[in-house]
UniProtKB/TrEMBL annotation:
Hydrolase keyword on record: yes
Pfam families for the chain: 4HBT_2
Hydrolase keyword on record: yes
Domain of life according to the entry: Bacteria
Signal peptide feature range: none
Protein name, UniProt field: Acyl-CoA thioesterase
Gene3D superfamilies: Hotdog Thioesterase
Alphabetic keyword roster: Hydrolase
UniProt family annotation: Belongs to the 4-hydroxybenzoyl-CoA thioesterase family.
Organism: Luteibacter sahnii
Coiled-coil portions: none
Amino acid sequence: MRAKGVLAAEIDLVVPFFDVDSLEVVWHGHYVKYLEVARCALLDDIGHNYVRMRETGFAWPVIDLQLRYARAARFGQPLRVSAELVEWENRLKIHYTVSDATTGERLTRASTIQVAVRLADGEMQLVSPQVFIDDVTRRLATATEDRR
C-alpha cells in the first residue's frame, strides 16, 4: 500500500500540443515535467523551494524516479497533478498522482527520491539538513493549525 503524504499540493494544467505525438498522446517523458511543476508547488508551500535550497547551501538532485502509467493523457485534456510529501528526515520522497481534472480518473502514479548534496564540496548527505527539517516542521505546525 502506498504511504499517505503529510503535506500536499496540486496543480492543474491542460495538455499542450507540443507535448503530444502524432496520435495526440502525451509522450511519456513529458510526465516528468508535470511532476516537476507539482513538486515546485509543494516545495513553495513548505517554504523550501529551489532558491532557498541554494541559499542554504544544498542541492537536491533526483536520484530515483518511478512512473506507472495506467492510461494515456491526450492533447487538450485537463490534468490535475498532486504531489505529497512522504519522507523528509533522511531523504525527500514525494508521491504523485496524475488524474483527469474533470473525471478524477487516475492516469499515472509516480514517486521521486531526492537527497541533499552540499554545494560547497558535492558531498551527499546521509540525513536531511536541519534547515530543511525545520522548514517542514514549521509547515506541518501551520497545517495542523489550519485543520482546527
